[in-house]
Known about the structure:
Helix content is 31%, strand content 22%. A hairpin with a 2-residue loop joins strand 6 and strand 7. Helix 3 runs parallel beside helix 4. The two termini are 18 Å apart.
Amino acid sequence: MADVLLLIDLQNDYFPGGAMELQGADAAVARAGELLRAWRFCRRPVVHVRHLAARADATFFRTGTPGADFHPEVAPLEGEAVVEKAFPNAFRGTELEARLRDLKPDALVVAGMMTHMCVDTTVRAAADLGFTVRLAADATATRPLAYSGLLVPPEHVQAAYLAALQSFADVVPTGTLLG
């Protein structure tokens, strides 16, 4: 079987004007769109993951809001698989593993958001489950974080998480995956 493209949480709330804007979201979705067009052209399987807030007091990804909708650049087409989740790890409490096992991928090619949260937990879980993972580093985005009074700029968060994920995935630019 071919590689499966796994697109994680490419939803409107992460983009300019959204409730949880990420740095580099526009560039990341453009790269993810390149991957998606290539997969569609070659008729390879695609799985879209959408996070829907489980808590009533959630500030983003609230069910029924435009922010929870897929970004138009990467919106699923009829017949493409969509997995909805309520936790950062896209495998937790979803049918994702079963869907992927049915597809028997050579590898999972992953793109999406947030690098330090949903991408991180899903890539690590995929590796733990025995999948070969290739992460499109430039098709991911994150935001600044703070700890103990220290503000960590988003470019440092991005670099640190991508560096750590090299232990679980082949972390490469989109062009490498398309070439």
